[in-house]
Design a protein that fits this description.
With 513 residues, the protein is α+β, with helices and mostly antiparallel strands. Helix content is 18%, strand content 39%.
């Protein structure tokens, strides 16, 4: 662009400037083309040395004022110093016409132009991009250097400072308590150190199949009909001496048996007899001759290891092993789902472990095992309804050990027996049905003391042997205090309105068929 402030105008007389200007005379219009050298600009506005472009200027005859293009160009250098090049303009003088009178000459004006061309600034974002790129490069190499330095330091300081016991020495040589982190290992779903296969291999030789023969009579439309049958169950070897091998099982497995046999592998049949029974705890002990084991080819007799059932926790993994369905030993898996659950079996109240491991017919008397290979319960019963699944029950091992040792020493111990199945009447039920608090008799078992005393279903027991009855637990506790063969008074309410007192004889549960 033109810089008006730098434009200079200068006039001199024709005489003073005749030596510096070129006179041009022409009668007709003469077109003269003048070429002036101008530096070539590159794409980024930089001057290219040694190159020039032609700027054309046309001068017309008869024109009083010179016509020209800028002939002086100033280019901005890097330090903004202006380099000025001036090129003299041409002055054109008109000649006198042949027919016209010569006019006095007029002063000729010299015109100078100064042009300043500023270098075009580069893109503003380019320098910022270069800055960001430089930062990235510095970060990359800087981070790599820090990482390598840290690795070298860790190797030099820590790896070379390990003590023989696996600890690490500090910078001052002192022993640090921090130990090297162990690699992660998969966690077993079991609650012990053995796998299910290990447990089964360890416990299988201690679990036996029990087969028994039964006989008796049954009432069929008023007629007494004799019958014979067979059944199956399971047992666990817990002790032995020079002569006998002792096995614990459930009382109901052997209580009505006329003949008992056992098998370890399922291929042999070894005769066994009852040592003692405890109906109140649902346990019994049987025995077989050690010589019969050897005769059957069983030289390695293994007694099971009993664990502490008080240490069992809900969620602990367990295996149930027994003679399911009488088809031979099998194993099912599950966990402990409840502790200290009270159930009623044939009028006998038991406190048991609840498990999700399948307890099938034939599993009674079998082993409930933890993943340490220890017996923590004797499988006894299960809930069998259309609305409940995976609810099996086992007598805790601590209770089993107490009873089986007593039976081993004393044989069958007399157990007080009443002969009913009942349920609690709570305050809410009492208010709703206008019943007294006590025990509701749901079933009277044939041949028991209650049956002989005339107790009926629907009666409510409110007292027994001089003590108030609030629930089944209080009734069983009072019953256990009685001696077999004695007679006690029992208070009942019949039809929710009649109060009665009955005399009941205490029988031995071991003799109830």
């Amino acid at each position: 662009m033109y810089d008006d402030e730098n434009e200079k105008f200068k006039s001199t007389s024709e005489q003073e400037n005749k030596d510096e200007f070129l006179k041009v005379e022409a009668d007709n219009k003469v077109n003269e083309e003048v070429s002036i050298s101008q530096p070539q600009l590159s794409e980024n506005n930089e001057v290219q040395d040694g190159e020039a472009n032609a700027i054309k200027m046309t001068v017309n005859d008869g024109c009083a004022t010179p016509i020209c293009t800028p002939v002086t160009t100033v280019f901005a250098s890097e330090d903004s110093t202006q380099i000025e090049k001036q090129v003299a303009g041409e002055v054109i003088k008109a000649s006198e016409n042949s027919k016209s009178q010569e006019k006095p000459s007029e002063p000729v004006r010299d015109t100078y132009f100064t042009e300043t061309v500023k270098k075009k600034a580069g893109k503003k974002g380019s320098s910022f991009k270069k800055f960001i790129a430089a930062c990235l490069v510095i970060s990359l190499f800087g981070g790599t250097g820090v990482g390598v330095s840290y690795a070298i330091m860790q190797n030099m300081v820590f790896n070379k400072s390990k003590l023989p016991d696996g600890t690490v020495a500090g910078f001052n040589g002192a022993k640090l308590e921090t130990k090297e982190t162990a690699s992660a290992q998969p966690v077993s779903s079991s609650s012990g150190t053995m796998t299910a296969v290990d447990v089964i291999d360890a416990v299988y030789p201690s679990v036996v199949n029990i087969n028994m023969q039964v006989s008796g009579t049954t009432n069929y439309y008023g007629f007494s009909v004799p019958y014979e049958g067979s059944g199956s169950g399971s047992g666990v070897i817990f002790d032995m001496d020079e002569e006998n091998v002792y096995i614990v099982t459930n009382n109901h497995v052997v209580e009505s048996a006329t003949g008992i046999s056992i098998s370890v592998t399922g291929a042999e049949s070894i005769s066994a007899t009852v040592v003692g029974t405890d109906a109140s705890s649902a346990l019994a002990v049987i025995k077989a001759l050690k010589s019969d084991f050897k005769a059957a080819g069983i030289d390695n007799i293994v007694a099971a290891k009993f664990g502490d059932s008080d240490g069992v926790k809900v969620g602990q993994s367990v295996l149930a092993i027994g003679n399911a369905l009488g088809e031979g030993k099998s194993a099912t898996g599950g966990m402990i789902s409840m502790l200290n659950k009270n159930i009623d079996i044939g009028g006998i109240n038991l406190q048991v472990l609840q498990t999700s491991a399948a307890i099938n017919p034939g599993n009674s008397g079998g082993a409930l095992v933890n993943y340490e290979g220890e017996i923590i319960g004797i499988n006894t019963a299960k809930t069998s309804t259309s609305v409940a699944e995976a609810m099996g029950y086992a007598i805790p091992s601590n209770k089993v050990k107490e009873i089986m040792e007593s039976l081993l020493v004393n044989g069958t111990t007399p157990q007080p027996y009443l002969g009913i199945m009942g349920s609690d009447i709570t305050d809410d039920i009492a208010d709703m049905y206008k019943l007294p608090v006590g025990v509701l008799v749901r079933q009277v078992l044939a041949g028991g003391g209650a049956d002989m005393a005339g107790v009926k279903e629907g009666d409510v027991i409110i007292s027994f042997a001089g003590k108030s009855v609030m629930n089944m637990e209080s009734l069983i506790s009072t019953l256990k205090e009685q001696k077999v063969g004695t007679t006690v008074e029992m208070g009942i309410i019949r039809d929710a309105k009649t109060s009665m007192t009955l005399k009941v004889k205490i029988l031995d549960s071991n003799n109830i068929q």
